[in-house]
Amino acid sequence: MTAETWHNAALALKLLALDPQGLGGAVIRMRASPDRDALLAGFTPALPIRKLPITIPDDQLFGGIDLTATLRSAQLIENKSFFNDPVIAQIPMAERCPPALAAKLAHAADQSLTQGFLLLDEGIEPDERTPDPLADRCAFHLEPQGRNALVPAGTTQSVPAGTRIETGDAITQLTLLAARFGITTLRAPTLALRTARAHAELMGRDHLTDTDLEIAATLVYPHRATIIPEEIEEPESPPPPPEDDGCPRGDTSESDTIPDAEILVEAVKSALPPDLLNGLVPAGTTRKSGDAGAGKKRISNRRGRPLPARPGRLDGTSRIDLISTLRAAAPWQPLRRQQQPDRKGLLIRPSDIRLKRYAEQSDRLLIFAVDASGSAAMSRLNEAKGAIELLLADAYASRDHVALIAFRGTAAETLLPPTRSLVQTKRRLSALPGGGGTPLASGLQHALILAQQSGAKGLTPTIILITDGRSNIALDSSANRAQAAEDATAMATAIRAAGIAALVIDMSNRPQRALQDLSRALDAPYVPLPRADAKRLSGAVTSALDV
Predict the structure, then answer these.
(1) Phi and psi of 301, rounded to 5°?
(2) Which is more confidently placed, 544 or 478?
């Protein structure tokens, strides 16, 4: 298997060298090493390879004003774009490519401005990957296993010619095969067809064969697969009709033969990486993905990763982007000089002012909404207290805040406002009486208000609901179980509409259907944890939210 992955990677680069623009490019997920250098040494396209840093500004990527030359000559002089000359763009550390740059490069590829990409992905963690807009436009995803097992230079592996296939039949077969692996985009069959054509050209043929289709499917489909096709039981075939020697027969040659679909399916299955199989789901099932990780990105005018400047006015809090301001003013200097010949130096107008912007990561707020009703309220609060203390141990490194809302009796109250202080948390949780009804709707309402307030202050809130019973107190404090359930569902719908992430932890002895329905209304994960202690509760939060 190791040697086969290296052989497929080397073959993919040979095919990419033949048609870099048609195949889009390749993602090579390897750390910098002699093995990667040896693999890249076999990539010898006719076009030059030029490195494209992920920090490239727009004026260098798409062309813009040469500020120095423009000011020197008093004439508008523009820079050439990165793609002015046909080149293959090699992007180191592609897993760190900003989404904005990935979208721009994908748009350039769709407009046929690029000649192909070579994306060097050096990510280690599963979530450190090349952005989808770029990876989806590349035919190949290469991740050789083990050490270098390339065939020595000067030798080639023979490939059987196979049976000739018409282009229309090849398109149909590749499209149906993509659908069986849950690949919904039509870009994949198109790239597979181009791969088959490139392989036929590499083998010196002017027509497609079933071998070309098998190799194309093996190289293009495995990393795009989302489901594993189920085995299809073939029905018993009816007996063949009797031969009629008097009937004329057409051409019985194998020129129109389509390769067996199951052969192509097995070829793609055999190329699936072992770790990819764990992430796939059987056909007919769905997989839900949720947001996880640190807080969301937001726009700041003081710190963070630089973003493109924007027009604006100096208000004492924003920073001026001097280079962008001069670039905006440069084209107007000759006209302004004619209007004001007595003025010396640069003529800057308020409309030329450009302000700096930054993208910074907001802090995340974990809002614990804890059920304090019933005889077991104190034990649940102690478990929540222990879980919060465990989470606060890592809060400084991850810049997370924690808040606590307890609901009992007829209403909820904010026991602990957003904080990162462990001492303050222990002091506030030292004593809390329990008992009474379960005003779940009030608890969700308090959590929603706190989440919206914290969001306005730059935090990214996540609500963690901890309860073991059904709601029996409505928002108007009446003991009406039916109205209480409707109010809880309404508040859950409001939280979901506000785009606030949530998690439901059921700490009852048996999973409650009402809480499962509530989690669906919140569009939140449901975690049943009967008799959970602080460590299990903290572990569940960490696993579900990737704290």
Answers:
(1) -110, 15
(2) 478
Range with lowest mean pLDDT among 148-152, 441-445, 459-463:
148-152
DSSP state of 65: B
Strand pairing class (227-228; 117-121): unpaired
**b/e map of 352-388 (b: 16 or more CB within 10 Å)?**
bbbbbbeebbbbbbbbbbbbbbbebbeebbebbbbbb
What is the rounded distance in angstroms from the CA atom of residue 193 to the CA atom of residue 221? 12
- The Cα-based distances of 483 to 95, 443, 444 in angstroms read 50, 15, 15
Within its chain, how far is the Cα of 384 from the centroid? 32
pTM metric for this prediction: 0.52
Instruction: Decide: 459 and 365 in contact? Cβ < 8 Å.
Output: yes
Considering all CA atoms of the chain, what is the largest pairwise distance in Å, rounded to the nearest integer? 103
Phi, psi of 470 (to 5 degrees): -90, 155
Dig out the tokens for 385 from the structure: 């207290």
Give CA–CA dist 210/260, Å, rounded.
9
* Rounded Cα–Cα distance for residues 233 and 262 (Å): 11
Q: Which residue has the tokens 């901890």?
A: 466
Beta bridge partners of 310: 355
Which residues 6+ apart lie within 8 Å of 449 measured at CB? none
Domains of the chain, first to last: 2-151 (3.40.50.300), 159-229+254-275 (1.10.8), 297-361 (no CATH), 364-545 (3.40.50.410)
pLDDT over 80 (residue 239): no
Give the torsion through C-alpha atoms of 367, 372, 373, 375, to 10 deg: 150
Distance (Å, rounded) from C-alpha 537 to C-alpha 389?
11
Token pair 């509760």 is at which residue?
Answer: 537
Token pair of 410, please? 């007829």
Query: Nearest to residue 27, comparing CAs of 112, 117, 144?
Result: 117
Mean pLDDT of the chain: 77
Closest C-alpha among 186, 288, 204 to residue 523:
288
Q: How much is the average pLDDT of 106-119?
A: 91
Alpha-carbon distance of 202 to 15, in angstroms, equals 7
